[in-house]
Amino acid sequence: MSAASRYRKVTIGLLGGSFDPAHGGHVHITLEAMKRFGLDRVWWLVSPGNPLKAQGPAALDRRMAAARQVMRHPRVEVSDFEARAGTRYTAETLRALQAAHPGVRFVWLMGADNLAQFHLWRDWQEIMERVPVGVLARPGDRVEARTAKAAQVYRHARLRASQSHLLAQAEAPAWCFVNVPMLDVSSSDIRARGGWVR
After folding, report:
1. What is the DSSP code (8-state) at residue 85?
2. Is the pLDDT of residue 76 over 60?
3. For residues 179 and 137, is the Cβ–Cβ distance under 8 A?
4. pLDDT in tens, 104-154
5. Of 51, 72, 160, 176, which has the maximum CB count within 10 A?
6. What is the CA radius of gyration of the chain?
7. What is the bridge-based pairing of β-strands 11-17 and 158-159?
8. Is-contact 48 62, C-beta < 8 A?
9. Does 198 map to a domain?
10. pLDDT of residue 113
């Protein structure tokens, strides 16, 4: 069975990022996203680099290995798809994923902090029009995210939190904002404490 046919009719959440390093907070929001948004699987898309960050992350193979150590779940896959496909921006990655896996329903996952600056992403409106978007709130990011430009432009496409389980089957544009108790941990804090050296 080919990889494309194996995932047909499956709903897959996509959590992209540098994972520099991956930590328990990533695991927590992944499991919450599967539960809240009715996802069959989640793929962690470990990016070669973040175009919005000046300093590059640790080597990709090191971040992939660390992510696989942290995220051990039969329905979660750690992927280097962006490096293999040669994509750098999320819209490009989504185009490539949909071409490689026709019939799969993808949902883009992000933290509320990303929603607040989503309008700075290249082709951000294409992302919203291409796949449903699930937003998980982190402490301190809720008000800023709710008033973000993307939230205002696509307010007509927002599902209520009580409808979050419908997101995976919704036609884009569709997005849902859910409040999730978060773990107080971040990659930048881990690096600052010397727990991860690039």
Report:
1. H
2. yes
3. yes
4. 999 999 988 889 899 999 999 999 999 999 999 865 556 677 789 999 999
5. 176
6. 16
7. unpaired
8. no
9. no
10. 83
Considering the domain boundaries, does residue 155 fall inside one?
yes
Inter-axis angle of helices 60-70 and 24-37, to 10 degrees?
Answer: 60
Task: Give the CATH number, domain containing residue 159.
Answer: 3.40.50.620
Is 12 domain-assigned?
yes
**pLDDT tier for residue 5 given thresholds of 50, 70 and 90:** very low
Task: Give me the percent of the chain exceeding a pLDDT of 70.
Answer: 80
Residue 179 sits at φ, ψ, to 5 deg, of -85, 125
Query: What residue type is 82 in one-letter code?
Result: E
**Has residue 197 been placed in a domain?**
no
Tell me the torsion sign for CA atoms 127, 128, 133, 136. positive
Number of alpha carbons in the 13 Å side-chain half-sphere of residue 81:
23
Measured CA to CA in angstroms, residue 105 lies from 32, 94, 114, 138, 181 at distances of 18, 11, 22, 25, 26
Query: Most distant CA pair in the chain: distance in Å?
Result: 46
Amino acid in position 11: T
pLDDT at 1: 38
How many domains would you assign to the chain? 1
**Contact, 44 vs 26, CB < 8 A?**
yes
Both tokens of 73, joined, read: 């779940």
Domain that holds residue 119: 3-192
Extract the tokens encoding 162.
Answer: 């009580």
Residue 27 has which token pair?
């695991």
